[in-house]
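EI: anyone free to look at a 128-residue chain?
SC: sure, send it
EI:
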Amino acid sequence: MIVLDSSAILAFLWDEPGTQIVAEALQSGDVVCTVANWAEVATKVMAAGGSWDDAEEALFGLRLAIVPLTADDAVAAGHLWLEHRNLSLGDRLCLAVAMRQKVQTLTADTEWAAVTPLVQLIRPAKGQ
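SC: here you go
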């Protein structure tokens, strides 16, 4: 299993740098997104004037699964906040699920790299 952050999903939908890495993960067939990150993706697509129906169809067509959050995920996200206050709630929930499942997570957010070795950046940090 691979957990996708909203930034990775948006990079895929908008054909941004890192798209190929996300596409390869989606083709593996065992890729998930937390319900919190799903809400974030929906919000950003709609805010940009995109078609949510088209985005949803594309992602579900590639077998992206939406996973619920647990009370333990919520507590883990709280613990992550203590050391990584720059991460959003959605970021911390995504990381909590990846850490609970002990699986890789894909993101475009370079600040995640310091949190856990389970993080794979889909594109290099600016200036690298």
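EI: Helices lie at 6-13, 19-28, 35-47, 52-61, 71-83, 89-101.
SC: 👍
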